[in-house]
What we know:
The two termini are 23 Å apart. The chain has 19 helices and five strands. Strands 1-2-3-5-4 form a five-stranded antiparallel beta sheet, with helices on both faces. The chain is mostly helical and 568 residues long. It has helices at 6-45, 48-85, 88-115, 117-123, 131-143, 145-160, 164-188, 193-216, 236-240, 244-268, 270-294, 296-306, 310-337, 340-344, 351-383, 387-408, 416-435, 460-473, 476-497; strands spanning 450-456, 502-508, 514-520, 548-552, 555-562.
Amino acid sequence: xxxxxxxxENRLIRKSSIRYVVPxxxxxxxxxxxxxxxxxxISQSLGEIPFSALSTVEPVNLIFSAIGALGGVGCGITVSxxxxxxxxxxxxxxFTRCVIALxxxxxALALGFYIFTDPILNFLQAxxxxxxxxxxxxxxxxxxxxxxxxxxxxxYILTDDNDPQLVLAASVTAAVVNVALNLVLLxxxxxxIGASAFAMVFSEFVAVLLFIPHFRKSxxxxxxxxxxxxxxxxxxxxxxxPGTPMCIMYxxxxxxxxxxxxxxxxxxxxxxxxxSAVIDNLVLFLTIFTASASEPVMALASSYFGENNHCGTxxxxxxxxxxxxxxxxxxxLLLIAFPQIFMALFAVQDPVMVSTLPFAIRIVCLNxxxxxxxxxxxxxxxxxxxxxxxxxxxxxxxxxNIGATLLLARTIPMDAxxxxxxxxxxxxxxxxxxxxxxxxxLFTMHRENVRMLTGGxxxxxxxxxxxxxxxxxxxxxxxQSVDDKLIPAFQEAVDxxxxxxxxxxxxxxxxxxxxxxxxxxxxxxLFAAETEEESxxxxxxxxxxTCVASEFNTLHRLMINFKAAGEA
Length: 568
C-alpha cells in the first residue's frame, strides 16, 4: 500500500476554507448585526412593547428563510456537484428552474399570510398592546418577501458558484443600508416600526440587485438560460433534496419560537415576549460564528464528493469542525461570564426581564456548542447525499424541544424554552454521532479510497519526489500519460502562477476507474474576484487519458481519469 501524507491536502483545504470562511464571516457579521441594530433601534426609540412585537413576527420570517434555504442550499449543492463533474450547462438549467420555483412559492405564501394576518398574529401570542405594531411590521415584510428569499438563497448559491466575495459585498451593502435607514428613520425622524421593516426589505432588494450581474455572465455555473429539463437533468426533488435539512432547520426554529412565545407570553405577557426577542437577537449574533464555520462544509465537502474523493470529504469535516470550535469558544465564555454586556444593548429595564435574562443568555450560549456540532454534521450529510439522516435528526429536535419545553413550563416557565432547546440539541447530536456514524473522521484521518497522497512546496526536487511516488502506484501506461500530460501542465502553471503548495492524489473511484488529481493554490487576493474560466464538458468525470484543468473550491485542479482495467 502506497504512502498517504494527509498534511498536504489538509493545508490546501485550510487555504480553500479560509477563502470561504473569512468573507462569509464578515458577511454574516454585517448581515446578522443588521437586524440586531433594527431591534436595538426599536427598543431604544419606541420602547419595550413594540420591541416585544418582533418575537410574534419572527416565526413568519423564519418560514421565508426556510423557503430560501430549500432553494438556495439545494440548488447550491447540486451546482457544486456539477462543478466537481464539469456539467456547467446542467447547472445553469437547474439554477433557472430554481429561481422560477422560488418566485411562485414565495408570492403564494406571502399572499396567504397577508390575507390571514390577524389570526396568525393572535396564534403567535400577539397581545392587545403590541398587535398593531406586529401587523404594521409584518405587512411591510410580506410586500418585500421576494427580495428577502432571493437574498437568502443567493448567499448559498453564489458561495457554491465560486463567488463568496460577491456574497460578502452584497451582505455588507445590505447591512450598511439597513443600519443607515434604521438610524435615520427611527432615531432621526422618529417613524414607526414599519420603517424598520422597510429598511430591512429595501436593503435586501439592493443586495439582490448586486447578485444579478453574476447570474448573467456566460462563465458562471449559475446563469439564466431556457428553463427546459433535458434528459439526464436531476429532477426537482433531486435538486431540492440537499436543501431539505436546512429548510427543516428553519421550520424547526419557527416551531421552537411559536412554543417559546406560547410559554413566555402566557406566563409574563409582554415581558416574556421581550425576553424572547432579546434571545432571538442573541441567536442571530451567535450564528455569525456557528454558521461561518459550518456552512462552508457543504460547498467544500460536496465538491470532493462529486469528485468521488471520500478521504477529502472526511478531511473537510474534521478541519472545519476544529476551526469552528476555536472561533466559537472565546465568545461563548465571555457571554457566560458577563451576560449583562448583551442585555445593555437593548436598554432592558423591565424587572422580570432583568431578573431572568442573565440565566437565559448563559444557557443559550452553552447550547450554541451543540448547535454548531449539529449544523456541521448536517451540512456534511447534505453534501454527501445522506439528507434523510439529517432530516431525522431535525425531527428528533422538534419532538424533544416541544415536549421538553411544554413539560418544563409547569415548573420553570421562564427558562423552559432554553432548557428544551438544549436538550433537543443534545439528543440530535447523540443521534448523528452514534446512529449516523459521523464520529468517523471527526477527530482522526482516514485514507478511504485514496491509493496515494503526497505533495509539498512546488520545488523541482519535491515535484520529482511526488512523481516517483505516483509511479509506484500506477501501471506503466497510465504513468506515461501522467508524465506526458499532467506533470508538464503543472510545471507550466508553476512558472505562470507560482503556487505556495500542491498535492497529488491517486484515487480509486467507486466505479472502478482511477483518477490522478493535482491541486495547488495560487496568489490571488483573499477578496479578489476569481477570473479563471472553469472547463466545461471537457472536465466530465468519464473523459479518459486527458488532462483537464478547472477551478475547484478556489484552488486549481489538474486531473486525469483512467478507465477501469476490466473496461479498458
